Every structure is written in C-alpha cells, then in structure tokens.
Amino acid sequence: MLQAFYGNEKAKATLALGWKGGRLPHAVLLEGESGAGKKTFARLIAAAAVCSGEERPCGVCRHCAKAMEGVHPDIRLIDGGESAKNLNVDAIREIRSSASVRPNEAERKVYILADAQNMTVQAQNALLKVLEEPPKGVVFVLTCENRSALLETILSRVTLVRIENPPPALCEQVLHELAPGHGEEEYRLAADVFDGNIGRAAASLGDAGFRRIVDGADAIAKAAVQGTEYDLLEQLAAFENDKDSFRACLRRVKAVFADLLRRKYLPEQRRDALGSGISALQCERIVAIIEAALQMMEQNMGYPLASVWLCSQIKSALNR
Ligand SMILES: [Zn+2]
C-alpha cells in the first residue's frame, strides 16, 4: 500500500522499518511544502497504526479500508489549515482528554493534526503534556510546512519525517493519470514549474495561474537579457503578493536559462534573440543566482528583498 505513494523512498523505509521492528513511534511530524502529500502520507501512517494485517498497512483488512475512506472511528483528522480554531488550546485539551479513552475498534487510536504550524504557543504547550506522557496505543501524526514554527520541546518528542517532492520526471508521469486531457508540453512544464510537487502541479493544470507563471517567467528572462534593471523589477513585481507563485516562476526562469546554456553547447546552435544576447558563462551565473535566491526564500527571505537582490545580481552578471 505504501508503494502507491510516489517517491519518498526514505520516508517509506523509515515507516516500514518501524512497523516491522514493532517500534511504533507515538508521535510523528511530517514536514514538507504544501501539495507534497503530507496528509496522504499521514493517512497511510494512520492506516498502518490501526491495520490488523501482517505488512502494515496491508490495504485489505477492514481497518485499512475504513482508514483510506476516512471513516475509521479510531482515526481523527483535525485540520489546522481549514481553521486555526481547530487547533486552538481548547481543541487540544479536548483531544487530550479523548486520547485517554480506549479505542473503539482497533488496537490503536490516531490523531492527525494537519498544518500544526497554525497552533499557538499555548496550544503547543497543551499538546506537549500529552506527548510527554502519551496514553498507551495513541499515535499522533503532525504535519507542517516548516518545523521552525514549532516549539523545540515539541520537536524533541516527535520522529521527524521529511516529505519531499518526487523528481519532476516522476511527477510528470503521475500527472497523466491524475489530471488527464492535457498536452505533453503542459505536463512537462507543470512538473518543472512546481518542482515535482504533484498536488500543486495537478491543481494548476488548465488554471489561469499556471499560464501566468509560465508567461511571467518568459517575460522575466527577456527583461533580464534585453531590458533595463527597471524592466526586470517591473516583471518581477507581477508576483509580489504571491510567494508560492513567485518561487514557481523563478524555478521556471532558472530552467529557461539552463536550457539556453545547454543549447550553447550543441554543435548546431539554435540561436534565438535571447540566446545570442548572452554568453554561456553568463547563463551559468544567472542559474546560480536564481538558485541562491530560491534558497534564501526557503529560509524566509521575503519578496521585496529577493526581487531587489535578484535584479542587481543578474544585471551585474550581465555587466549591464
Ligand atoms: Zn490492514
């Protein structure tokens, strides 16, 4: 059943090993970006916890069936992404007292706290009490985009599992099944732009926001090579209120320059206006600059600083 989850071999191996050795973690934290599949993976852990089969989750026992349908009475999903209230201090206290009640049907009971980064400090402290002395047979699965939003004391009590995007080529393949009816080029672009994030790529196909990212990236690349610093800033500004799209767009710009660079080394160069305005070394530098910007944004650098930094770095790499 675990094999149905794409990529993430390391996370799956961690989980499978734990179940085989009978060392069941009582609290797991799944960290990964939105759309990476944290909730799906949390459901798999929950299914494994309640499963009555041999290889957990077996996928065939009645517990697994109910777990995957989302109707197992011993699995509760509390979604902090839907409403912050769902994970406020009162909600956590209620979870705490219900956790001490025996499971209904299975041997274990699972609480999935999705988007746990939305918990207040007070709520986290309330949760800490139950993590410190978990009732027998209770498993907590927390998900978050970035562990830095959680208290150190919480982090020290959970098994951390990273949920990564699969490679873009695998994402592209999966998209054909998940979102049929699009062109090959579109699948490739979506997998590329969203860096293999299946959830976000599938949701974006055929969406106006997706075209905006792809067209925006072309305009940014053009402004970088042919325009002034002001032109470049202006094109970047189209994404100032949407950090996720901005990052997706930058990944696409990076791919455009990486592609230009590849073409420079082909024996028969296909020189378009963009490619002839820039040297191989400059392409390489721009790819590195964008990569650095993406990493800084990962560490919470905001849009204003990132865009100004990008402009000055790109323009100086091009000696313009
Ligand atoms: Zn089962």
UniProtKB/TrEMBL annotation:
AAA+ ATPase domain ranges (all copies): 24-169
GO BP terms, alphabetized: DNA-templated DNA replication
Protein origin, superkingdom: Bacteria
InterPro entries: AAA+_ATPase, DNA_Rep/Repair_Clamp_Loader, P-loop_NTPase, Sigma_54_int_dom_ATP-bd_1
PANTHER family cross-referenced by the UniProt entry: DNA POLYMERASE III SUBUNIT DELTA, REPLICATION FACTOR C / DNA POLYMERASE III GAMMA-TAU SUBUNIT
Protein name (database record): AAA+ ATPase domain-containing protein
Organism the protein comes from: Ligaoa zhengdingensis
